[in-house]
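Let's do one together. I've listed all components of the complex below, 256 residues spread over two lines.
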Amino acid sequence: MINIPIKSDTYIINANDFSVAGKVSSDIKKDLKKLGIHPKIIRRTAIVCYESEINIIIHSIGGKIVFELYEDRIVINSEDRGPGISDIELAMKEGYSTATNEVRELGFGAGMGLPNMNRWADEFRIESSSKGTLIKMTIFL
Amino acid sequence: MKVSDIKNILDANVLTCNNIDKCISYAFGSDLMSDVLAYINEETVLLTGLNNPQVIRTAEMVDVSVIVFVRGKQPTKEIIKLAEENDITILATDHIMFTACGLLYSNGLRGLDEQ
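Okay, and this is what the predicted structure of the assembly comes out as:
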């Protein structure tokens, strides 16, 4: 694999800031359109990025999304600070959720976030501890 | 089916519109945006009773360009503005979700699981 990104951007995501949820994914999507990336690749990238963004807002005390475009792939790194996921296997099950009612009222918290990321990314890696959660998603071009 | 047909069948108001002649073959009804993100993969009309900006954001991510708000939900100015920025057509109908989906299905629209 080629290890020097053509493009790399870092976006800070604040906890509980629902008013701008989706803005980062929207910006990344627009950038990819300008670069002429295939629409299906753009859609998959936008979905995993959006779910990451929502998860950081809902579940963490803040974090960041690092977007990297390589010649052969797109990598989305989602990094957040605390409290982490205590049981990753359980969190990966469709329908399992620890979200609050406020989050459910927004149409999220249905327990599909991590499964959706896993569904649309070609590679999905997750590590979590009480300090935070790191998710790396790769989509090949 | 054209967007104009959807409007007539559902007796809906058109709140934003960039293309009333656009053709749609599939529909998906849900108030859960993560389900929308899981299943929609074609040009589809989204029917929802959820009334917040995340509906538009979700539609944007999956390239949905037509949304029908059901159960008489009236989207806020913020929602309409975001839809206009993303060339998303918004319709609003007083029909409940079940009736709206049934009317569209009986007139030829199909679910994504029938592709």
